[in-house]
DNA sequence: TTAATGTAAACTGTTAACATTTCAGAATAT
DNA sequence: ATATTCTGAAATGTTAACAGTTTACATTAA
């Protein structure tokens, strides 16, 4: 990996997150700060910070003796992630006040327009997609709910990033689904919006699993030796 | 605060978490690594780590310039926390297989017995209480759901710890509610279990809000000056 | 007076070194 | 042979110093 001088911690984090998801670090493998620091030509500080974040993302586990072991990542984990995201976002839909919706409707449609724009250029704009879904949660005004959603955000960003070659094709349908969700919400049809959102995310999950399978390195359980 | 030689990072974290919740650091106030390090007689490393965790707990916010500002904590935040916990745990109840339940029923009742034991000694065992609720979530086998719940755990531990003088009185009722929840689950009455769990946590929330109000320092909005 | 510019202090990001704990294997005793 | 104790290596926890950026404020120009 090429590490530039600034924001070292973030670069290390993104590198490790991607490698674990892709299976280049295997379940049971130890992450040793000194070794990683040497490999990546950085000091232990940023590596330590990155590992702490990976722990919060459930990709590694810190033992009581301080050592860090990779938890691995497979299709089941993707499904768990999407299941939980469906739970959070569908709950969010029930908690949005009509005032709050009115205030943010324009922004929701702006995001939709920006996705259309990107799609016309043959691109997929992950950030805007996540901003759209994030706004649905933010509109609840529930700080904890928002925080929980945000704690999954980077993981989804990486997942979508890795699998974008699979998902870029059905961008048009994704955008249409976003429109339908907002329309249902505006009409006060919360149940309908929930149904649409669930289907939307389940489809995304399906494509994501496919995309990961394609890119993932072959599984092989490693018994924990450094 | 007295800082002992080992596990400095954790001590700093718990100190800061408690202080922010109690309102001894106010909304808008800056957390400066160098100052905190001097105040607590430790180096910046552990302080940095602690601040990163506080950020994940939504108690502070890191600006793009790197500076850390306290987000504050009030009754609304407690309600958000409990609302989200109800969401996670009630969803968990729907996802527990009967096999999984059979396997863990004994452990659930063990926790209940341990709470009874503590109660007979006039104590309240926070850890066991949290272990009980945590097991409900773990039984879903959904890694993400479990992780989300765990990310709230320390915050709840601190909250319950601060407010334990209020909640220790109704320990007996809390234990009885735990029993009823497990019984409903065992009978396959998931809806009933959800209803009981929701009421259980809403009551806990109420007592927690009371307890915090008693212990909290008077609010005063500080405009962000170091 | 207001805006622009320069500068020292304050603060974070990063690195490197020191301290302590944990681990693995050799040496010893039973 | 098996168990136990010792010892050095390896890894984490912590500290301290360095580098770069941002902030705050004084100075200058319009």
Account of the 3D structure:
Chain A has 226 residues and is mainly alpha-helical. Chain A is built from ten helices and three strands. Chain A has a three-stranded antiparallel beta sheet. In chain A, β2 and β3 form a beta hairpin. In chain A, α1 crosses α3, α1 packs across α7 and α2 crosses α3. The longest helix of chain A has 26 residues. The first copy, chain A, starts with 7 loop residues before the first helix and ends in an 11-residue tail after the last helix. The C terminus of chain A is likely disordered. At the A-B interface, α3, α4 and α7 of A face α3, α4 and α7 of B. Chain A binds a DNA duplex (30 and 30 nucleotides) through α2 and α3.
The largest sheet of chain A has its strands arranged as 1-3-2
User: What's the helix count of chain A?
Assistant: 10
Q: Major sheet of chain A: size, sense and barrel closure?
A: 3 strands, antiparallel
Largest interface: A-B, 25 and 25 residues
User: How far is the N terminus from the C terminus of chain A?
Assistant: 21 Å
What is the share of helical residues of chain A?
55-70%
Q: What's the count of strands of chain A?
A: 3
Assembly form of the protein: homodimer
**Judging from the principal axes of the Cα atoms, what is the shape of chain A?**
elongated
Strand content of chain A: under 5%
Q: Write the H/E string of chain A, N to C.
A: HEHHEEHHHHHHH
Mean of all residue-level pLDDT scores of chain A: 93
Please state the CA-atom Rg of chain A, rounded to the nearest Å.
19 Å
